[in-house]
Amino acid sequence: MTMAAKKKPVRRRRSVARKETTAMDMHAIALHEYYQSLRRAGFSVEVAMGLMDCKSTMPEWLLPTTADTDITPFYDDDEDED
């Protein structure tokens, strides 16, 4: 009588796939696209990374708008009153 071969345990694959796209996902995709565009334009890896490090070089539409950018300065009127 021969024994049946042992079955290998089924391993679940880890997945980072989600159904919804978060703001962080969109920002990472935008940065990746910006880097690829810089490389296609002929910039070296070092220069492309340097440009990505400085926010002032990025187009305004690439930077995410957050609630922090819409805050008006706080003026304390009480300091002027004596």
Overview of the structural elements:
The structure is a single chain. The chain has 82 residues and is mainly alpha-helical. The chain contains two helices and no strands. The chain has a domain at 23-59. The chain is elongated.
Give the topology, please.
Blueprint: H1 23-40, H2 45-53
Précis, in short:
This protein has helices at 23-40, 45-53. With 82 residues, it is mostly helical. The mean pLDDT is 77.
In round numbers, the mean pLDDT is 77
Helix vs. strand class: mainly alpha
Give the helices and strands as they follow along the chain.
HH
Number of strands: 0
Percent of residues in beta strands: under 5%
Query: Which ranges are low-confidence, i.e. pLDDT below 50, for 5 or more consecutive residues?
Result: none
Shape: elongated
How many whole angstroms does the radius of gyration measure? 26 Å
Query: How can the largest sheet be summarized?
Result: none
The helix content is 25-40%
Number of distinct helices = 2
Give the CA-CA distance, first to last residue. 103 Å
